[in-house]
Amino acid sequence: MRRRDVLAGVGSLGVIGAAGAVAIRGPPSLDDGTEESEPTADPLMVETIDAPGSEAGEVRVPASDRATFIDFFGTWCGPCSKQMPALVEANDRIGDDVLFMSVTNEAVGRSVTKAEVVDWWTDHDGDWLLGIDPTAELSAQYLAGGIPYAVAIDSSGRVQWSEGGRKSADELVAGIERALEDGD
Asked: CA of 135: how far to CAs of 45, 106, 138, 141, 171, in Å?
């Protein structure tokens, strides 16, 4: 029963974060890529944790010197687990060209520990920057739906691609390439 309560609470956080994002940014657009991208958001400092490919500290999002890719995930999310191989491949193909990171907005320290996040990360072969967003500030700026959710931001801070749901490596790379092209 306790696990069910925890999962319901974490799921509620995702819904609240998405609702906050819609309230702040408006509903997701059905942009065909021909219109101008949305305005830049204020940069945030995101806490990173010590895990494979990641060090404990903070990182500025979006990065000031290059494009940024954010994968929003949850350790409880089945589609997030299933998407990890595609993220591994996308990171291998294009990760050096962008600030490539995955972020969870779970209540780290309350509903899940950092050690549990790191264990999940290790079990799913994560090997890039790992961030946490327990206050959902980053989620409020960029998450416009359920998770998994991917966002590609160009070097000037404009979102060039964002989309929810499980993606293939090709879809992730294509989204990131939009941010790389438009940031030049």
From this structure: 12, 9, 8, 12, 29
Q: Is 55 left (phi over 0), alpha (psi -120 to 50) or beta?
A: beta
Q: What is the pLDDT of residues 112-167, one digit of tens each?
A: 999 999 999 999 999 999 999 988 999 999 998 899 999 999 999 999 999 999 99
Strands (DSSP E) contained in 42-158 are 44-48, 57-61, 68-73, 99-104, 129-132, 149-153
At 47, give phi and psi (nearest 5°): -70, 135
Domains assigned to the chain: 2-182 (3.40.30.10)
In total, the chain counts a number of residues equal to 184
